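#structure-requests
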Amino acid sequence: MTATMTHAQAVSTKRRRHRSVVDWIMMLLAVAGALVVFFPLLLLLINAFKSPADYATSGPLDLPRALDFTGIITFWNQMNFPRALWNSVFISTMVAVFAVVISVLNSFAIGIGRVRGRTWIVLLFMLANLVPQEMLFDPLFRLYDRLGLLSTPWSVILTFVVIQSAFGTYLLSSVLGTFPKEILDAAAVDGASRFRTLVSVVVPIIRPTLSVLMVFFFIWTWNEFMLPLAFLNQPDSLTIPLILEQLNGERQVETTTLVGGTLISIIPTIIFFLIFQRTLTRGITAGAVK
């Protein structure tokens, strides 16, 4: 008996040591990955606060001799950054909200309503996400030109609401397809209508998933470049990625101005991530538990 216990303790100790080594390796890999990700941000922080002369005489890894905000101020004034920031926030927010609402309505009808041809409908939504954006340039440009929507935020909003809601419908249809029928039957017994069941029963249960989806839709739309470049061609309608590309295309621009503009352009997304970090964590955890 004692020999058996001793052997079991030895095996348990060996497993703990093995797990400890694996944990240390994983932690070192995570730290190395974090350093790789943080290195470009470090370069931005170092070079954004250099004067043009300091940048020309020093290397990119050298610390600035004195803090200089010329590049940031030039970018802020020359490219009308506040207007571009508002355009990006407005477009991304509207797309995230409308795309999630449409995705919920579509997926409720497909996943719970059990419409005919459900599998083929979901397949069509999946295929819609595989269409290259380049194919949308000409037809959408002609359509928005006739409707007078070119160089307005609504041309981009309408386009990406459709694109993002196609992905959201495909994802949520799979989630609602496995929704517990007992909960729906209980709501029906209580006299709840379909819409009441959706608003008061289904949405509160899948709220973590909807929160994660909304955050992703916001970030994806914020970083879009190709379609906004085709539809937004007036200075007052440009988004942040467009003004960065416009600045990068100028021949006489100082490197410190470009670096400073890049730095202040990523600050809103960092703030957005910090605000909704807990939402993302809760949503992913809830999905894993279910």
